[in-house]
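DUF4817 domain-containing protein, Aromia moschata. Tokens?
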Amino acid sequence: MAHLTVTQRIEILIFIGCGNKTRTQQEVCNLFNAKYSDNPITQSIVSKIESKFRETGDVKNLPKSGHPKMTQDKKIDIVLSMEENLQSTSTLVASENEVSQTTVLRILRKENYHPYKFQLVQELNEDDPDRQLQFFI
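Tokens:
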């Protein structure tokens, strides 16, 4: 099915008409394609839009099935729990918020949090150059 905006789908219904002043699906195709030559449609698309409108009373696509999206409140809870305890692990935060560890890591990455641990190699001290000299001598 060609990607049509909601406005274009409504316009197709207007082209069809109502009552005893209706057009055939082919006439609607011709009118629509004349107006929107860059996005042509076929008779089957008109049929699908018309039947969707008759069944649901709307031309919008139905919401996707499956697991619901993460709510904004849950995302905020995850970020706040990491803020409160910076030593916390993603596994612990995931179990506290009843989501997967992958979800926690994805949310934290989007919020510009990066997992890391400080190690002596990554942390420079004032006497590091002196120790380097002693090591090489």
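The mean pLDDT is 84.
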